[in-house]
Amino acid sequence: MSEREHFGSRFAVIMAMAGSAVGLGNIWRFPYMVGEHGGAAFIILYMVASFVLVLPIFFAETIIGRRSRQGTFGAMEKLAPGTGWKWLGLLTVFAPIIILSYYSVVGGWSVEYLYKAVCLDFTNTPPERIQGFFGAFISSSGGPIAVHTIFMLLVAGIVLAGVKRGIERFTKVTMPVLFVLIVVIAIYSVTLPGAKEGVAYLVKPDFSKVDAHAVAAAMGQAFFSLSLGVGTILTYASYMRKDENIFLSGVGTAVSDLLFAILAGFAVMPAVFAAGIAPGAGPGLVFDTLPFIFNKMGAGAPWLSAAIAIVFFLTILVAALTSAISMMEVGVAYLTEEKGLKRATAVLAITAFAWTVGVLCSLSFGPLAEVKLLGNSIFDFLDKLCSDWLLPAGGLLFTLFVGWKMARPDVFDEFTNGGTLKGNVRLFNFVWFLLRYVAPVGIAVVFVTNLVL
Ligand code: TRP
Q1: If pLDDT is split at 50, 70 and 90, which confidence band does 1 have?
Q2: Is 5 part of a structural domain of the chain?
Q3: Count of domains in the chain?
Q4: Considering the entire predicted model, what is its pTM?
Q5: Chain-centre distance of CA 42, in angstroms?
Q6: Domain range holding 447?
Q7: CA 48 to CA 44: how far, in whole Å?
Q8: Does ligand 1 lie within 6 Å of residue 35's CB atom?
Q9: Which CATH number is 290's domain given?
């Protein structure tokens, strides 16, 4: 067996993990969830969910990954050989490939929108026509499949280059740039005339909107946004060096992810209010309304608005890429470690499979709209299956594995690097308590709420 690759530094680990976490979930999903669930109140719920429930799962996955130094299937075989846990391993190999397939469709939309922004389409078209763009585009066949293909090939190219030369190199350069770009957009957005109301919406909590639904939505969003429950973080952790600090990596990733989501909120919401659009417009918010806003605001300063449109869709595209590579790596690790495939063959196999499923997802907005799985289109079915069920199920099982199946001294050893990290030693009892009791009970509550609602 060849030498296993490692991330080069703590900075590299956090950038790769933050790259996985920061994605469409932050820029596309978070703003409309905030819009639907009461603005600032949702942000508070989301923070609590991230740090109390979801961070322990992050620790669970990193502990498993780094201890076993295997991908998700191999990890289960190594830490609990010959048990039913291997099914958790298999499930978590499969789920990210499914997520990748529909994620790539949305990633493709960002390729298309970037192209349109570069061609100045948003600046030079009458506003009425802009609003029709999104619906018309996603329900067509050739265009969306073409950009889905481009996105998938970009992902495959980076993963093919390897953990250090591909993933590490790409995320180390792009993640800091992404932060700068989102700050630039947020500044532009909050200084638009009429943006005040949008800012108020993000900072003044309205607790009357906080119900069981909002709580479940906040937890689901935190899971998705931190890439948890399906072995992505586990796989990245298997490339961590033994002297890396699991606690700091987790907190660094969670803070980056939260900060980015909030900045994205400030990039999107004030602009939405400035243009007089309802914040709860739903999933179309970013793709449907932002070009319209750039167009409308562009009347006074067309070049500025064209530049911001380009920067905005470039940010979405790059953020989506750094997440998609983490999904592909899970399957690649499995095929190379367990099935002995070459990296190139593994990348090809996963790309071909996810591309095909993605084509079906893409067509489900148009020609295949009538094909329903349990009442949902193919795209929605796969998204719900993963976000509402597979992620929480995987997360629950990972915490149970670390909290109840692994021996406490082993968990201690991994979390504290054999007792050498004094800060982590002091934190251990608290983390252990979160892992064993708080997180599993919390996730179980999300499940029941999803079932009942
Ligand atoms: N967290 C990413 C986002 O916010 C998406 C993502 C990457 C993901 N890997 C994942 C989601 C694994 C669920 C599971 O866009």
Answers
A1: very low
A2: no
A3: 1
A4: 0.94
A5: 18
A6: 10-452
A7: 6
A8: no
A9: 1.10.4160.10
